[in-house]
Amino acid sequence: MQNRIMVLRKDQRLSQARLAELAGVTRQTINAIENDKYDPSLSLAFRLADLLGTTVDDLFQRTKGEHQ
Amino acid sequence: MSRAKRIVRMTFWMNNVALVALGVLVLGRLWALPITGTLVAMLLLVTSYWILAWTLNQRYHVKQRQSGMWYTDDERERAIALKVHSACLTGMTNGVWGLIALGSILFLVRFETQTLLLTLLAVAYLIAAGANVQYYYLWWRYDQA
Asked: Where are the domains positioned within chain A?
């Protein structure tokens, strides 16, 4: 699952550590999500979308070949 | 490196120290090693536990260890812990079945009771050491952030 977290985070001049702190997770988790190594739970996805001022739909996109 | 990863690394090495100390204690009893060796092993065992408890409390601020995943800080680490626990549980179950099978075979071969018990003890020791390595390795493999 691709996402635009890194782009939106940089737009808002937030570090991974700061975003992690705001979302209540570790910096490693934000890094893993940004690098498509971990798919967050629905509640974390909503929290991230809220923090980055967007919607879950805008933040996450299905990659090609993923279950439709 | 995340706090959870550092705790896993610390407990891995402390478990190794405890396993070596236990090994020396058992061998000391079997081969009548000098009492100094037994004392050093006991000291090592107590010290390693004390160092682990102190470090977890003071450095990693662990207050309670009732939950099985007390060292995790968020959902990703809990997911990793669940995967690792599941794999280790399977490994341990297979190990215990293997131990029962080996015990049955050795019982049929009619080893002396002491030899039988020592062999089972050695295999149990290897299972514990293997589980420790497996836990550390799997955590490292799954936690790639």
From this structure: 1-59
